[in-house]
């Protein structure tokens, strides 16, 4: 068991890989640069190979160095999960929990969810982070958030997924927009009459898939950055859009002369919580999801 890398050395290696700079990594680890450099050099001596190529002020990880980083990250995750596991059993739903939420969910439930969690989990230091699905998955993988609330389906195979609620889509248009009144099949909507969010927002793909809209001529080339811009286009009778029930229940259409036509069949997105399969806080996260499930379902109820 002698002459093995230490957890601290692996943490320093990960810091250098993340920041790609010895000075910045040292600052992030609250140590001097010389201390960090010595630790990395000692790690290389223990392993008997070069992990980082250094040249003046630049650095580059070797091929084996990149492999070691992958293994080191798993070792650190597993070590942290042991600590999380024991803390979870001693003090359920206590400490800090950072939840990432995508914008098309956070816009409508972030504030009440934050207040709800403060009341239901008084021993929990609850932190919300709003970001896109891809960014949250990256933050989750690297331990920057503990859980993420996403709209599904999405590529979450490497994480544990817990479905909380179905959030149904409805067709929304101005009450005087006659072109949409008699349409039964959404693919019969006029050319360029469907307004959607930018493709970076997963709600666009969910709406198209859920509402079986496959006629590209229907879709307007304009892509809105947020739902309020989207609704302004519809409010001026330029066309229609699809909104989830969560947004409608939150009052996004209040004061607008809009018609809401619920879709038929399976036109919905799933709202789900995801977390790392390697976490030691599975017990905590299951308790959390059970409590939050009723809250989210109420926000999605028709």
Description of the structure:
- With 302 residues, the protein is of the alpha/beta class.
- Helix content is 44%, strand content 24%.
- The longest helix is centred in the N-terminal third of the chain and has 28 residues, at 63-90.
- The chain starts with 6 loop residues before the first helix and ends with a helix.
- It comes from Pseudoalteromonas fenneropenaei.
- Keywords: DNA-binding, Transcription, Transcription regulation.
Which helices and strands, and how do they pair?
Layout: H1 7-19, H2 22-28, H3 33-47, E1 52-55, E2 58-61, H4 63-90, E3 95-101, H5 103-120, E4 124-130, H6 133-141, E5 147-152, E6 159-174, E7 194-197, H7 202-210, E8 219-224, H8 227-235, E9 240-244, H9 245-249, E10 258-262, E11 268-276, H10 282-300
Summarize this structure as a short list of keywords or feature phrases.
302 residues; alpha/beta; seven-stranded mixed beta sheet; two-stranded antiparallel ribbon; DNA-binding; transcription; WH_DNA-bd_sf; LysR_HTH_N; WH-like_DNA-bd_sf
Compact description:
The protein is α/β, with parallel strands linked by helices and 302 residues long. It is built from ten helices and eleven strands. Helix 1 packs across helix 4 and helix 5 crosses helix 10.
């Amino acid at each position: 068991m002698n002459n093995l890398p230490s957890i601290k050395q692996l943490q320093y290696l990960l810091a250098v890989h993340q920041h790609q700079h010895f000075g910045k990594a040292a600052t992030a680890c609250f140590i001097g640069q010389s201390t960090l450099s010595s630790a990395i050099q000692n790690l290389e001596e223990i392993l008997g190979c070069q992990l980082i190529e250094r040249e003046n002020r630049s650095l580059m990880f070797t091929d084996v160095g990149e492999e070691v980083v992958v293994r080191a990250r798993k070792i650190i995750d597993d070590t942290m999960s042991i600590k999380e596991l024991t803390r979870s059993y001693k003090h359920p739903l206590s400490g800090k929990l950072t939840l990432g939420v995508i914008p098309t969910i956070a816009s409508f439930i972030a504030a009440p969810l934050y207040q709800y969690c403060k009341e239901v989990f008084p021993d929990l230091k609850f932190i919300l982070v709003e970001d896109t699905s891809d960014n949250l998955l990256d933050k989750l993988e690297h331990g920057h958030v503990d859980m993420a609330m996403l709209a599904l389906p999405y590529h979450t195979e490497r994480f544990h997924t817990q479905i909380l609620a179905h959030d149904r889509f409805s067709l929304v248009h101005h009450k005087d927009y006659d072109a949409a009144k008699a349409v039964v099949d959404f693919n019969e909507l006029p050319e360029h009459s469907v307004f959607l969010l930018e493709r970076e927002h997963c709600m666009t793909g969910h709406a198209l898939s859920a509402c079986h809209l496959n006629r590209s001529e229907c879709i307007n080339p304009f892509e809105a950055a947020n739902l309020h811009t989207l609704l302004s286009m519809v409010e001026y009778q330029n066309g229609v859009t699809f909104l989830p029930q969560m947004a409608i229940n939150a009052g996004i259409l209040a004061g607008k002369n809009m018609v809401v036509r619920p879709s038929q069949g399976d036109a919905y997105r799933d709202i789900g919580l995801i977390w790392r399969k390697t976490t030691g806080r599975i017990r905590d996260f299951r308790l959390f999801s059970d409590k939050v499930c009723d809250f989210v379902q109420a926000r999605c109820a028709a």
